Amino acid sequence: ERVRCAASSPSCPLPGGAAMHCLRPALLARLAGARHWALLLRRGAAAGGEEEERFVFPEYEPEPSETVTAAVPCREREPGRERRERSSVSAARRPDPSILPSGVSCSGCGAELQCYDSEAPGFMPAEKYRSLSDGPTGVTGLRNAVCQRCWLLCHHGQALGLRLPPEQHRLVVSAALRRPLRHGRGPLLLYILDLLELPDPVLPQLQGLMSPDVPAAGLLVVGNKVDLLPADAPGHLGRLRERLMAACAQAGLRGFPLVDVRLVSAKTGFGLEGLISRLQRSWKCAGDVCLLGATNSGKSTLFNSLLHSDYCKSRAPDVVNRATVSPWPGTTLNLLKFPIINPTCDRIFRRQERLKEEANKTEDQLSSEERKYLNHLKKQGYLVGEVGRTFQRQKSSTVVEFDPDMLSYSVDEEPRHSPKKPEESEEFTYNEVKDARWCFDTPGIIKENCVLNLLTEKEVKLVLPTHAIIPRTFILKPGMALFLAALGRVDYLKGEKPAWFTVVASNLLPVHVTALSNADAVYEKHAGQELLKVPMGGEERMKEFPPLVPQDITLKGIGTTEAVADIKLSSAGWVAVTADKEEELLLRAYTPQGITLVVREPPLLPYISAIRGARIAGNAAYRTKRPPSLVENLKTIGRR
């Protein structure tokens, strides 16, 4: 990896100026020290010379943000220039209370665009707002524009401190579901469920969001993020589907005809073509479809994938912008929508022909760009698919317009440049939408008693997994404790034999194993520090963070190859416990005060402890193992 040197002036002392390429020392150090198994870092304790153990993955450690600048500045900045630039930027971002709301929604989150309150949803800097709305088209110039919050999320990964009350999210969703019947029937509910969050805390609340006067026509439950979970044994997708169906039964949903249960990855595309085919076969174009679910379940990612698929009208991707996606809970603030295509017999036939043709392709037949993208997806998830399009609008060839008089000028004249014409935004025609059925993306329902509600933006990025989870297995004896960052802890209090504890969580969260007698001291010393990493911010951060509270758990082992239960530490992850048959274990699990702890029986991945390498000599940890990725629609890749 090379980084272009920032020196661009001829006076730069470095040879070559801007053409100079520099290797980053940090990258060289990472390449030299990286291993493909868990690295054990030993740190001497302050008292008694005891060693503390921290298990991390160098290849998943986030690189410290580095600003690439020239070692020697080529030109000194004008005194006071930075201050003037900051003042001009802050002035441009000031609100203007004299301007009324636009009535136009942000194309990223759905909030109404406005410039009178910088703390409210939909805020856009006043100068930008005027430049878009003062044109000949008026406020319609704001269409396809995004608010400041969506802009920062998309381009800088930065979340503004905007959190609406949970009740407001529920009101928006409930109002969408209680609208009068369209086309003589209620909507189809497409409930998006994060498989890592089973049992889903929001699914039982679905009944309270509906109106008895507007019954749902059906419920289709989609288990998302299946690509993050490794295959613990053959048939793991069937077992995951059974767990998902059991969760639907336990939620006690009455009056919702269950259409189907599907496993997908909205991010890598796995299972999406099958979901689209299922929707077009069973629901056709009978009515509207509403995407529902808790925050961070992947609704907006699925919305974007369906927008660029055979499920929407061919011209919709040119008119409807993609929804804003970020790990920050509650990104979508209002309704977003696109029109659903009518799956006629001819269209279904053409679509099936395309799917058959793609299923016969091999990886070698893909283009270089397709192979590059496929390899990128394989690094992110265990299960990969492709979402194609059968019905694409034929775009007319671009016509280059120019004025011949602008191409000629005398030596005494400066070249004249014609002003750039603003791009015309496309709109649906009346006939396209007069009787359309719509797919709606709704705001996520805030999960109560969730650890994510306690975390900052940087901490959320570390806690929520975005790449394939590599399980980490440890063998603990009675009298040992395991920390998952500073967000959860599991103590092995009593038992006759050692047991296996497999951590399934973000690869960026550290796991720390210590003696039970030292556990309290480790937490007091290292919570908020680098060893436990999350929360971050030192003593000041921990003063406001809730203390860990215990819950005793009794389990009985069912064999050394199958986990008996998962100890789910809220959204931080879970620990799968495997023990000898009939072995009784007394455990004590900790989560922050007010945060839900769940003992999941049976476990989600019962054979997860088998995904491990050899044990590291003299330690409780096993080396890690990453199963290979699978592609569902290529001929050369086997299916499960």
Offer a quick outline of the entry.
With 640 residues, the protein is of the alpha+beta class. The protein is built from 16 helices and 22 strands. Pfam families: MMR_HSR1 (PF01926), YqeH-like_C (PF21516).
Based on the model shown, name its key terms.
640 residues; alpha+beta; Rossmann fold; 3 domains; seven-stranded antiparallel beta sheet; 16 helices; 23% helix
3D structure, described in words:
This protein has 640 residues and is of the alpha+beta class. The protein has three domains: 94-162, no CATH class; 166-387 and 432-448, Rossmann fold (3-Layer(aba) Sandwich); 452-627, no CATH class. The chain contains 16 helices and 22 strands. It has helices spanning 25-33, 81-92, 126-133, 148-156, 166-177, 206-209, 236-250, 272-282, 299-307, 316-319, 345-359, 368-380, 430-433, 457-463, 519-526, 538-544; strands spanning 3-4, 21-22, 39-44, 51-56, 188-194, 218-224, 258-263, 289-293, 336-339, 383-384, 438-441, 472-476, 480-484, 488-494, 499-504, 511-515, 548-556, 565-568, 574-578, 584-592, 598-600, 630-631. The strands form five sheets. A seven-stranded antiparallel β-sheet has the order 3-4-16-13-14-20-17, with no helix packed on it. Helix 6 (206-209) links the parallel strand 5 and strand 6 (218-224). The radius of gyration is 28 Å and the shape is globular. 40% of the residues are buried. It comes from Ramphastos sulfuratus. GO terms for molecular function: GTP binding. Residues 67-96 are annotated as: Disordered. This is NOA1 protein. Residues 74-87 have a biased composition (Basic and acidic residues).
